[in-house]
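Run log // design_07
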């Protein structure tokens, strides 16, 4: 019922903001080159909680005391427990009430929804401003895949958001178990991956599995497989999904075989971390932010483990990247510039290295690797450096309206396989049908 109500609210907001068939693309700003001549206060809705909230608020306080331009950022956790959905629901209400914050943390498909309502500022004029923008050198230092995720094809490929917190879908390997099984190198192909994962299966006297080759796939593990086989998530013209081709079928059939043959572990929530820490999982596909949780689960236990690239179809392996972005809302020229100044500062090399060390998220810039504090952090957590080295080959999911529904269709598809309620071909076709409907409804 909550989902139906939420969809109804979204529809009411978006229809009210735009007439039928209209796409309210944000107008290019003419205010990116102004100067701030008086104090400005702006509000940022974010989703950092617990110790991360403390680290983030400390950084905001430093910006407020050192920016020299009279800018004060009020950071407010509106997430309902580290939830992007929590902010999203509150943001929809704020749009309807005409009381949006100056900055909002979101994922890209949510920003696309806000843009449909006509409240989002285009950032290209700010990024490229000769007075307040980023130099060519500075812009080139930010990883291109992160910047690309801020471009929205449904809105003329304009930049409508800026990277905030980023992570990658990576492959974790139990190096001790791999060595025991005689595998000195990580798999270069999916056939090699399956061979190694099958070899890890171990059962007790009753035939019950006690060790597995891999934990079952997340949404992004599946999408990463599709892309590394040469497929796509969505066709370039956004006419239909691309994951339902031969690449998607081959990826789903691995899941089907591992479930039927018993060499994959079907987790309950995040208890795959327990199996991995016990040494009973050879591979796990999961977000790079899991590194800290794995370390905590190990509790000092000696286990050699690493982050390795995904197998690929003959080219450079791609890692799915995701995470929060920040969008600016249409307010006043002064508030918009003040918000942009904070985004510039937070993404600068020193700050992004500091935030990566405190949070476990990936730095936004290549130059962050030269920061001594981050080097020290990586010395304690080499897996984070291994993940960082994979950023240049990362690829974002499409920044489009309807992407959450596409992801929901994949989650449903995978559940059908893990519960043995459908064959791979049928589950894939049903997922594509549902996802294509979402694409059509969100044009």
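design_07 sequence
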């Amino acid at each position: 019922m909550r989902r139906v109500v939420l969809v109804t609210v979204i529809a009411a907001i978006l229809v009210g903001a735009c007439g039928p068939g209209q796409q309210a693309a944000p107008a290019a700003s003419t205010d990116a080159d102004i100067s701030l001549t008086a104090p400005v206060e702006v509000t940022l809705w974010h989703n950092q909680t617990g110790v991360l909230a403390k680290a983030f608020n400390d950084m905001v306080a430093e910006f407020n005391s050192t920016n020299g331009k009279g800018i004060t950022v009020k950071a407010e956790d509106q997430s309902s427990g580290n939830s992007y959905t929590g902010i999203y629901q509150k943001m929809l209400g704020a749009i309807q009430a005409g009381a949006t914050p100056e900055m909002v943390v979101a994922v890209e498909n949510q920003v696309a929804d806000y843009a449909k309502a006509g409240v989002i500022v285009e950032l290209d004029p700010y990024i490229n401003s000769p007075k307040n923008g980023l130099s060519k050198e500075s812009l080139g230092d930010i990883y291109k895949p992160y910047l690309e995720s801020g471009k929205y094809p449904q809105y003329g490929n304009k930049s409508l958001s800026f990277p905030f917190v980023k992570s990658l879908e990576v492959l974790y390997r139990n190096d001790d178990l791999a060595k025991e099984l005689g595998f000195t190198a990580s798999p270069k192909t999916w056939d090699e991956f399956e061979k190694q994962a099958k070899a890890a299966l171990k059962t007790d006297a009753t035939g019950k599995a006690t060790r597995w080759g891999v934990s079952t796939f997340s949404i992004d593990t599946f999408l990463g497989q599709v892309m590394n086989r040469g497929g796509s998530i969505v066709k370039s013209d956004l006419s239909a999904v691309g994951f339902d081709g031969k690449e998607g079928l081959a990826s789903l059939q691995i899941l089907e075989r591992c479930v039927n043959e018993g060499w994959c572990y079907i987790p309950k929530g995040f208890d795959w971390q327990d199996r991995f820490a016990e040494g009973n999982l050879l591979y796990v596909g999961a977000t790079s932010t899991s590194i800290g949780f794995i370390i905590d689960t190990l509790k000092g236990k000696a286990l050699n483990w690493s982050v390795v690239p995904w197998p690929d179809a003959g080219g450079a392996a791609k890692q799915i990247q995701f995470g929060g972005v920040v969008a600016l809302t249409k307010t006043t020229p002064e508030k918009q510039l003040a918000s942009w100044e904070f985004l510039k500062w937070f993404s600068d090399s020193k700050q992004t290295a500091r935030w990566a060390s405190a949070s476990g998220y990936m730095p936004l810039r290549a130059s962050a690797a030269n920061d001594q504090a981050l080097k020290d952090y990586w010395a304690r957590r080499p897996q984070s450096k291994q993940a960082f080295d994979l950023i240049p080959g990362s690829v974002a999911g499409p920044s489009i309206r309807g992407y959450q529904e596409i992801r929901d269709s994949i989650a449903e598809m995978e559940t059908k396989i893990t519960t043995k309620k459908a064959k791979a071909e049928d589950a894939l076709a049903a997922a594509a049908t549902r996802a294509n409907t979402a694409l059509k409804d969100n044009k």
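DSSP finds 19 helices and 15 strands in the chain.
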